[in-house]
From TrEMBL:
GO terms for cellular component: apoplast. Its cofactor is Cu cation. GO terms for biological process: lignin catabolic process. This is Laccase. The lineage of its organism: Eukaryota, Viridiplantae, Streptophyta, Embryophyta, Tracheophyta. Residues 12-126, 138-293, 418-541 form the Plastocyanin-like domain. It comes from Chenopodium quinoa (Quinoa).
Amino acid sequence: MIELINNIYYKVRLQNVTHLCKTKTMLTVNGKFPGPPIVAREGDQVVVEVVNHVQNNVSIHWHGIRQIGSQWADGPAYVTQCPIQSNHSYVYNFTIKGQRGTLFWHAHISWLRATLYGPMIILPKKHEPYPFPKPHEEKTIILGEWWYNDTEAVIRQALQSGGGPNVSDAYTFNGYPGPLYNSCTGARGLEDTYKLKVKPGKTYLLRLINAALNDDLFFSIANHTMTLVEADALYLKPFETDILLITPGQTTNVLLKTKPIPSHASYLMAISPYFTGSGTFDNTTAAAILEYEMPPKPSSIHKIINVTSKDLPRLPSINDTSFVANFSNKFRSLNNAKYPVDVPQKVDKNFFFTVGLGTSPCPKNQTCQGPNNNTKFAATVNNISMALPSTAMLQSHFFGQNDGVYKTNFPQFPLKEFNYTGTPPNNTNVMNATETVVIPYNTSVEVVMQDTSIVSAESHPLHLHGYNFYVVGQGYGNFNPRKDPANYNLVDPVERNTVAVPSGGWVAIRFRADNPGVWFMHCHFEVHISWGLRMAWIVLDGKLPNQKLPPPPADLPKC
């Protein structure tokens, strides 16, 4: 029986929000930052009416929801839908099919997701247990950023100058920057700090979400170990760690066993960036507090909250690629009788995509601040920097009116081979186009995504809309099609919706194209999306009625 989660109204409006002793007016959903959570169960139908009360165009993406049969609700502006214009609304209507776990929703136009985001908690069906010990309590921690500046002005200025954008002023736990940043209060910013209250000797399920615009983040809790049990709303073979990495767009569920007799009443949680590229980034550490609820008696327990670096949990160095590689290789699907792996063993269509940065020429009579003399930063898949059309691609596809909107000649392989992670080619200019890949329904697909060092090698969290995929292999250096596939894991590979292409390396994914529509794939670093590191898949209809793209809803926004 499908239950209807109805009467959800998301009113996008301006709200004054104060952090670090500065107040700014910013876009929010229902006046909240982060936005309100959606809590549903596997199998539920979710209906959310989004009403736009601001001057910006808006769209909302339900990140990780496959949208089977509800393709028009996916959300990315100019791909799935035209954005919701000021004083207009749109009803997102979808059923959660075969999914349970932690996901999130966020704006999917320009940089509006800096403040328009919130959790999506999908519980198992009623009377369906977790495949791990039942936690005493569940807590959600959504990681993000605090910006003094208007992020729309930040990216607008960067695109005009061709240089890298300004960076955020702080990282946040559930919207709070914490005590390590400068504060005008004498209490060292503790009123601006997220506190996670726990009881001794209990097990907690922490739902972690990285909603930051441009930063992979390390996460740790001082003197505590976590057990990973889920990633991107898919169950894992559990493994323990005291540090984890989570990229923008990824979610991770961990079990935290609290100490039966803690030596302190409070411990620090901390996040810091992982970054290997060139350019500026927010090189700060944010903290929150794990606070034990204790009876006020044993003198051995110090009710002291320390905010110095010596009390922080140990975090890797900013460019610790070896930790990242070892951590990434620990992920395996649970792969039991109830939650089996269905990785394609045979591939119908192979693709090899380079992903990375490049340059565009500076317009005449303008000085640009890109990586080389008088250039602009650009980003590409197979050296194509995708220009978004001015109308929605899914609508154009459905009505067979793609002329002037998009083309269908996206290259299956790079147009020019080179030493992808070695000395960059002399010509670093990119091509600008709106190209797509067209594949028949139910095609088994393998995509190898290869990082390039044309400007600088760096990690790219690639997100595929409408699908989960299996990560069957990854490595450093250039992918070797003769040797590397022999080491693929086709038994219990991790299944995800967002995967980090390793800095200076490659990752191989497989999926079965069983969801017709137009599906966006892009780097989840917002700056890289803005520079063009994005493309789209068109999956054609199948033969059966439930294998076809349904007609658009009557209230679909117009461009």
